[in-house]
Amino acid sequence: xxxxxxxxxxxKITTKVIATMKKNGSRIVCLTxxxxxxxxxxxxxxxxxxxxxxxxxxVFQGQETTLPVTLDEMIIMLKRLSAxxxxxx
Length: 89
Prior knowledge:
- The chain has 89 residues and is mainly alpha-helical.
- Helix content is 39%, strand content 7%.
- It has helices spanning 15-23, 36-45, 56-59, 71-82; strands at residues 30-32, 49-51.
- A two-stranded parallel sheet has the order 1-2.
- It starts with 14 loop residues before the first helix and ends in a 7-residue tail after the last helix.
- The model is unreliable at 1-7 (pLDDT under 50).
């Protein structure tokens, strides 16, 4: 993921960076990705964060709530989306 406030290329965004951005009044751009192609396009756009959330229960599984999503399912989704970025930082 890239920090849009810098121009030196990819930068790891930590919770400390997010807290500092919030404290400084910086806008934090975050969008959700449910597949590799979308995640890659979002990363290339330079947004600050890509969210991979439990809303996959609603979007992919047709569930009424996000409660049925298991940790194992979240791990599988993260692996699918993060394959390109493993070892980047």
